Amino acid sequence: xxxxxxxxxxxxxxxxxxxxxxxxxxxxxxxxxxxxxxxxxxxxxxxxxxxxxxxxxxxxxxxxxxxxxxxxxxxxxxxxxxxxxxxxxxxxxxxxxxxxxxxxxxxxxxxxxxxxxxxxxxxxxxxxxxxxxxxxxxxxxxxxxxxxxxxxxxxxxxxxxxxxxxxxxxxxxxxxxxxxxxxxxxxxxxxxxxxxxxxxxxxxxxxxxxxxxxxxxxxxxxxxxxxxxxxxxxxxxxxxxxxxxxxxxxxxxxxxxxxxxxxxxxxxxxxxxxxxxxxxxxxxxxxx
Amino acid sequence: xxxxxxxxxxxxxxxxxxxxxxxxxxxxxxxxxxxxxxxxxxxxxxxxxxxxxxxxxxxxxxxxxxxxxxxxxxxxxxxxxxxxxxxxxxxxxxxxxxxxxxxxxxxxxxxxxxxxxxxxxxxxxxxxxxxxxxxxxxxxxxxxxxxxxxxxxxxxxxxxxxxxxxxxxxxxxxxxxxxxxxxxxxxxxxxxxxxxxxxxxxxxxxxxxxxxxxxxxxxxxxxxxxxxxxxxxxxxxxxxxxxxxxxxxxxxxxxxxxxxxxxxxxxxxxxxxxxxxxxxxxxxxxxxxxxxxxxxxxxxxxxxxxxxxxxxxxxxxxx
Lengths: 288, 319
Ligand code: SF4
Ligand code: SF4
Ligand code: FES
Description:
The structure holds 2 protein chains of 2 kinds.
Chain A: E1 2-6, H1 16-29, E2 32-35, H2 47-50, H3 52-69, E3 73-75, H4 78-93, H5 95-109, E4 119-121, H6 122-130, H7 132-137, E5 147-150, H8 154-157, H9 173-180, E6 184-186, H10 204-220, E7 225-228, H11 231-239, H12 241-246, E8 256-258, H13 259-266
Parallel strand pairs in A: 1-2, 1-3, 3-4, 5-6, 5-7, 7-8
Helix pairs in contact in A: 1-13, 3-4, 3-5, 6-9
Chain B: E1 3-10, E2 20-27, H1 34-44, E3 64-67, E4 70-73, E5 87-91, E6 98-100, E7 103-104, H2 107-115, H3 136-143, H4 153-157, H5 159-163, H6 170-180, H7 188-195, H8 209-213, H9 220-233, H10 240-255, H11 262-268, H12 273-288, H13 303-318
Parallel strand pairs in B: 1-5
Antiparallel strand pairs in B: 1-2, 3-4, 3-5, 6-7
The structure holds iron/sulfur cluster (2 copies) and FE2/S2 (inorganic) cluster.
FE2/S2 (inorganic) cluster (FES) binds at residues 53-56, 58-63, 73, 75 of chain B.
């Protein structure tokens, strides 16, 4: 199995442990990754608010790169995945728009998006293509006894027409992976809510309150740690956890791992290899 | 016909201190709507059960309620697909005070709608003999938002409202789009400036709940994106939300990737000392853990291609 790895910006910046976790997991699973070092930012739903045409042109350029490589794209960020799926679906459903985007792309870069590339998040690759049985056969350190709360991230689920989840109102994809790794999934109401990251710079108080709700929900449900497929959710809930704790009476101390990191742990990666030491809230030693 | 348990939230302020759930059993006729089930329960089992309804055909917007945790129109939805382990759980709309059972106080919702001045403000100097006309293309831009039936399903499930009742909310934003994009309105820029203020359009977290719950084509998140795009194009930039977008435009347009060190500073404003100081602790914390974005921002390989795409649109913007 071979994928064009779309890293997105965060895995190259404030979330390099996500990239480390991805390589640690994929090398052990036998998934070959070719990093798309020439792909641009997906726009994160922000560039499109400046000009949706620029965002679509940028993304169509990325897809044309993957088509040239002859590989499907693997995302490791659900925001990238959501933005990409929305762009891809809108282009596919609107031939006039696709033609216009391609015209700009051709004139400015000499490229063309043919509309053939398949785009999947790491966790979807595991579930749909790799298969949980095969994943289980590669586990060397089952995460037995670990209680894990999944936090999905909005872009994985909503709006529904852009979601690849089987049941975006009550998904269980991440819980299935957690179970396969030997850990126990913990259900809590906030697992499908927003972490607040997109308004961190506009209304920090609202933003951190949303993360606080999620962290508290997971804690009350008895989770040892949280896991998310979105590095932006991770940033709000991990990097800002001291501020979040400052707003409340209790200490949360809730580690928030990236899903490839959790998979890598079960496959035998060391905490150092997946850069767990860079997390603001580190998991307890006896846990990992 | 299978018998289903309707687990319905009950609250009578004169009798109950808090809400409780009451179970009703009902045999589901094939194809029956949720609203018809509730009517049957009310008529045949418990006349005290209170909920709102009127048109029965997805027009009046009064029968919105939360079912299994998500809002929908009872009259537009069939009951049987909602059954989960033999139960349909029904709650009143969220983000609202409950008056009785499934009826909530919608006054804050209506206040938010009034806030965006939902009426046309044409240029008074331009006094046409007949009505002010629009082309079909012009109308298409507001077609979706005009379908809103004010059901408040979006309001109920909005993540941003959950933590801040001052946020204007999705329905009002969809309504605002309808007037901002109406070619007969003369107050476009003023409207954009007002809606860009605190607790306005930039306070939406982009969670997508509103569009997912909306039973019509109003789909607020899409309208919010259109308002933001219009505000950026109109040069309404003096707020953190717009500066955040400018930070994206500047860094992605230059390097192909986001400069995560630059964007926060750009968003709050280069000379906003208190806000910059507020960013410091997290910056230091991340630096110590080596979680900070690289100090020298990186670029993609063929960055020229991205720059060309951006400059093409810069030219269009100037025209
Ligand atoms: S997308 Fe924005 S307005 Fe819509 S529900 Fe989410 S936060 Fe509220
Ligand atoms: S935007 Fe949609 S969900 Fe919101 S009030 Fe209007 S019709 Fe209802
Ligand atoms: S009763 Fe009017 S919309 Fe449902």
